[in-house]
Amino acid sequence: MNKKTISIILLAIFIITSALTLANVFLNDADTDINQTGTLSIGNKTVHYEKAGKCLDVIDANTIQVYGVGRVQLTQVDVNKEGPSFNQAKDFVIEKCLGKTVYLDIDDEQPKDKYDRTLAIVYTNDTNINRELLNSNLAKISYFEPSEFEKGLN
Predict the structure, then answer these.
(1) pLDDT per residue over 93-144, tens digit each?
(2) How far lies 74's CA from each of 1, 12, 132, in Å?
(3) Where are the alpha helices (DSSP H) in 28-150?
């Protein structure tokens, strides 16, 4: 074999290895069976979650795609899709969630909505995403029943 052929083969091996490594980083679900339930400390509050997974996509300001779970609707939060704060809210969720592990406190009273999205409070290591959207006036409370959560996510 000549040098050009060897170089092409090595380049192909490098590209395939890189692609597999990148796919493993974004799609690795090895920890989700181990960490399906647990607790987090956010500020001075301990919160419980039922599922954890990597946020693969931010659909809109209150809907995300979580590996191993599917689409997740941030419960009790309504972002006006026509208002000026929509892009701010979506950017906030992208910054806090995209590519990171998120922890879901799924609504025990109504775990899915009519679109088959999981209804949950979404946490990162240091933030209650639902609460921060409300506190930042990027969203308003959208309370519905039945729900395990109190109005305003208290």
Answers:
(1) 999 999 999 999 999 999 999 999 999 999 999 999 999 999 999 999 998 8
(2) 58, 42, 11
(3) 30-34, 86-97, 129-135
